[in-house]
Amino acid sequence: MTTLIAAGIDGYNSFIIENIDPRVKPWLTMQSPIYPMLIIIAYQYFVRVLGPKFMENRKAYTLEKTMIIYNCFQILINGYFVKEVVSRVILRPDKYNVWCATVDYSYDEEAVHFAFTTYMFYLSRCSDLMDTVFMVLRKKFRQVSFLHIYHHSGMVMVGWIFTAYAPGGHVAYFGVVNAFVHCVMYFYYLLTAFKPEYKNSIWWKRHITEMQLAQFVIVTVHAGINVLNPYCTFPKLLIAPLLPQGIFIFLLFWDFYKKTYLQKKVEE
């Protein structure tokens, strides 16, 4: 038994820890996947157990100024990622192939900057978790759905994995689509934080969900092309899980979209 445990620890260290990109390893939480897992566990415990219990006999917090500051921050950090990828990748087709962008693991200034940009994407997905925390504190429990919690938790882990093992390259295209959708989403949240009555008057609210659905289709197809390309050296072990994940999360969002918009329209 002791030998088996020792072998498991050795395997964990040699496969998981030693393969972390040494350029990102000094950065906060990048030393081990245990750190993002602890973040997710703490998040899940708060939004499912501790938060609702804490708010049980309390009035909902309004958090108006907090929400304005938070939404502005989220727009800025996601906008930063979009700007970086567009300027450094999308507008440079001579260097980056949209169908197979390999990772530069060198200590070249641009390569390290790209790794840091990927790290910023991961941090932005960590800050996304506060969205749910604020929902709990404002007693918006109906919004704290399985879809919401699963998606936020999963994106933290996805962000960490790509930052740790493939900070840049092909994943940039996935990230830029995701970050752009978040910019639009948090801009909507910012408007409703200023004027809550906008929730029922902004005509493009449903289109945010449609953008999210389109995002999952784009990401899944893009990942599939990479996996099927035998000449692309981007780590397929990392990109392949995006295929079933993309399909699953698409189905969850589609179910939400159907119940929220299509069925409601039929009932009306």
Automatic annotation (TrEMBL):
It is an enzyme of class 2 (transferase). Keywords: Fatty acid biosynthesis, Fatty acid metabolism, Lipid biosynthesis, Lipid metabolism, Membrane, Transferase, Transmembrane, Transmembrane helix. It is found in: Membrane. One of its GO terms (molecular function) is fatty acid elongase activity. Its EC number is 2.3.1.199. It comes from the Eukaryota. It holds the Pfam family ELO. GO terms for biological process: fatty acid elongation, monounsaturated fatty acid; fatty acid elongation, polyunsaturated fatty acid; fatty acid elongation, saturated fatty acid; sphingolipid biosynthetic process; very long-chain fatty acid biosynthetic process. The keyword Oxidoreductase does not apply. It catalyses: a very-long-chain acyl-CoA + malonyl-CoA + H(+) = a very-long-chain 3-oxoacyl-CoA + CO2 + CoA. One of its GO terms (cellular component) is endoplasmic reticulum membrane. The chain crosses the membrane at residues 34-51, 144-165, 171-191, 212-231, 237-257. InterPro entries: ELO_fam (IPR002076). It is a multi-pass membrane protein. Belongs to the ELO family. This is Elongation of very long chain fatty acids protein. The lineage of its organism: Eukaryota, Metazoa, Ecdysozoa, Arthropoda, Hexapoda.
